[in-house]
Structure formats: structure tokens, C-alpha cells
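Dear Dr. K.,

Following up on our conversation at the group meeting, I've run the structure prediction for DUF2784 domain-containing protein from Pseudomonas kielensis. I'm pasting the input sequence below exactly as I used it, so you can double-check it against your construct before we proceed with anything downstream. Let me know if the numbering doesn't match what you have in your notebook.
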Amino acid sequence: MLYRLTADGLLLVHLLFILFVLFGALPAFKWRPVIWWHLPAVLWGTLVEVCHWNCPLTRWENLMRRSAGQAGYEESFIEHYLWPLIYPSGLTPTIQLGLGGLVVLINGLIYLRLARR
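The predicted C-alpha cells came back this morning:
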């Protein structure tokens, strides 16, 4: 039971991290120090997508699920949980590059606006 709860907690942390990577620059309009947490998160999130790295959170979640007697999954967090909801046809390297570019674009626009303030 503890392993399953840990795996579910890691799943939630993973989702929150992805949302922070995408939109974490927005709180910088009110609280500037968030920039020092957000920029490394954007770098990591972009590199994971563009370089096709395995995220350690996915590995840890799979370990906890297997320890709980559940089946883990081989693909990434995005492929397993989010991709089927958004793009049912499957994840390709080209689309992963696009997702990495989207992260940079969204945050670049937010930081550009922030710099103009």
C-alpha cells in the first residue's frame, strides 16, 4: 500500500513539475525570486524532451509501482499519462522537439514581457 501511495505521489509531483516548467514564469510577475527556481526547471524540461532523456521521476514511479505489485511502464510520463489524452497517434522524436520548443517559446514570451516591465 505504501509503495502504491508513493507512486501516486510521484505521479502528482511529476505533473506539477511539468506545469511549473510550462507556466512557472507567471508567478515571477509578483515574486521575482521564483525565476531562480524556474529557469533550471525549464532547462531540465527542455533537455529531457529535446535529448530524449529518461526522467528520474518516471523511473522512481515505475520502481514504486513494481514494488507494489503493479505493472510499471516503459515509456516516459508524458507518453504514458498525457500523450494519449492529447495526441492519440503516438509520440515521435519530431513532436518531442516541438514540445521542447514550445516550452522555450512559452517561457521566452513570458520572460520577455517580464523584462519589459
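Two things stood out to me. The mean pLDDT is 84. The chain has five helices and no strands.

Best regards,
J.T.
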